[in-house]
Every structure is written in structure tokens, then in C-alpha cells.
Amino acid sequence: MFIQYLYVLKINYFMLKKLFCFLSLIIVTTNFYAQQTANYTSKLVDYNTAFHLYNNHQYLAAQSLFTDIINTSVDENIKSKSAYYSAISAVQLNQKNADQLIKLFLKEYPTSVNQKSAYLNLANYYFLNENYTDALNWYVMIDEQSLSTAEKNSFNFNKGYSFFQNKQYDEAKIYFNKLLDSSNDLEARYYLGYIAYEEDDYTKASSMFEEVKNEQRYLKEISYYQADINFKLGNFQKAIDVALQQYESSNPREKSELSKIIGESYFNLENYKKALGYLKNYQGKKGKWNNTDYYQLGYVFFKQQDYQSAISEFSKIIDGNRCDCSECILPFSKFVSKNQTKTTST
């Protein structure tokens, strides 16, 4: 009887032990999930607060909260979103490490729904910091069809301008042409005009510049290009008229370039008296004159019968071992020297 009693006690003991373990497990599990839920709820509140700050352009405060969530949250979805907005906040603040934060986000969350947006923001970050080669490397990752109309305009301009800065003009024209008749129409026409100018397509360049000639931001540049285009097309009086419109309001560097156009145009029109002052005001390319510059000024002095000055300018060419204008200059030099000798003797 006593043995049976002990046996029953033993069974009850093991049952109680199992029951205790089971109840303990339930309590621990319940506490764990309670903590998880509390953590999730707390971080969700923090995330919503950070997102509100972000939407109100308080990027530094938002970034601080997003970073805290990344370091403390156990929910991967919240962490992924926080990592994205923390990186984009860095872009908005133009922080030096913004590109690295976006790349880290792309590495850790390669399947995120924000992946394509991250590509665009990274490309724009490089673009705004004038790193056009890196910008292009990321713009090619973007599916243009997935962008809104406003995003497409910005994308086409930024990508076209990046190609433009890298002197990849054929590629740049593709994207600038997409912007014609859009909100970026004037910018596109200006750069298409500049490309045409660089490619010696002066008719197209002039046409494009004509469309944006009233834009104050492009006025000075366009006036110079239009003057130079008319000069190269042989429209010398038109070149003079356009250049003179901007001459007085120009800075010294701009005045030097305009002086060359005006002076050489008067020279070609054989108005040597007016050409003289402008040719003398020209400062040369990077501060240096070439043989043509010396020849034209020397010839103007010659036509003004200032033979001593003519000799001085011609000699600057003759003293050089290479001279493209030697066949033209030598007769003038001999004539001037001979005339100068006669003048001295009398």
C-alpha cells in the first residue's frame, strides 16, 4: 500500500514538473511576444514621427530618428524603410556620405520596393554635385517608363546635360530633343543650339538661339554666339550690331572676345578706322595673340599710314620661324620699310 502511494506521488510529481515547464514556456513566450509587440508598436510610432518630419522637410531631425530605428528595431520592414529614408535625407541635406548610404541600403535590401527610387536619387545626387560620369552610371539603371511626367522631364534633362558635360553630344541631343515643348523646352533649345554651334551647324544654332533670345539667363551667351555665328557666316554688319548690344555691359573677358568679332568684322568690311580700336582691345586666346591677330592689326596700321606701328606688328610675325601669312606680309613689310626710309631721308 505504501509503495503504491509513493508510486502515485512520483507520477504526480513528474506531471506537476511538466505542467510547470509548460506554464513557464507559455509565460516566457507570452512575454517575448509582448515585448516584440511593444517594440514594434514603439518603433512604428517613431517611424511615423520620423516620416512626418521628413515630409515637412526637417531632414536632419528625421534622419536622426530613422537611424535610431535602424539600430534598435527588430522589424525588417520598418528597418528597410528607415534605411531608405535616412539615405534620402542625406541626399536632401547633400551630405558627403549620402551616396554611400544609398549604396548600403541597396546592398542590404536588394528586393526593396524603393530600389528604383534609390537609383534615381543616387544619380541626382551625383548630378547636383557635378559628378556627371557617376551620374550617368546610375541613370542608365533607371527605367524611364516607370517615372512620372515631372520625373521624366528632370531625368531627360539631367541625363542629357550629363552627356553634354562629357562632350558626348550625339547622346545629349537624344535627351534634349525629348524635352522640346515640355516645361524644360527653353533649356533644351539653348543646349541644342550650343551643340549645333560647336558642330559648326550655324543655321540650326542660330534658329535655336533665336527661340530663347529673350531669356535673361542666356542673354549674354546667346549674344556672343549669335555675333560669332553671323561673323562666320559672313554677315559682318549683323555680327557688329549684335556684339555692340552687349559690349558695354560685358566684363573684361567678354569684352575681349566681342572686340575680336567687332574688330575683325570692320576689318573685313574694310572700315579700318573703326577696326583699329577693337583689334587693339582684344587680349588674345589665353592672353596670347596668333599670327592672324598681328597681321590684321599691322595691316590696319598700314592702311592708316602709321608705318612704324605697322612694321612693329608685322615684325612680330616675321620674327617667328613659322608664319602662315608670310607671303602676304613680306611685300607690305618691304613697302613700309622703303616708305619709312624715304620719309626719314626727306
SSE blueprint:
Blueprint: H1 2-55, H2 59-72, H3 76-92, H4 98-108, H5 115-128, H6 132-139, H7 149-165, H8 169-177, H9 185-198, H10 202-211, H11 219-232, H12 236-247, H13 252-268, H14 272-281, H15 291-303, H16 307-318, H17 326-345
Helix pairs in contact: 1-2, 1-3, 2-3, 3-4, 4-5, 5-6, 6-7, 7-8, 8-9, 9-10, 10-11, 11-12, 11-13, 12-13, 13-14, 14-15, 15-16, 16-17
Give a written overview of the molecule.
The structure is a single chain. The protein is an all-alpha fold and 346 residues long. The protein has a domain of 58 residues. The protein is 77% helix and 0% strand. It is built from 17 helices and no strands. Helix 13 packs antiparallel against helix 14 and helix 16 runs antiparallel to helix 17. It is elongated and about 125 Å long. About 3% of the residues have low confidence.
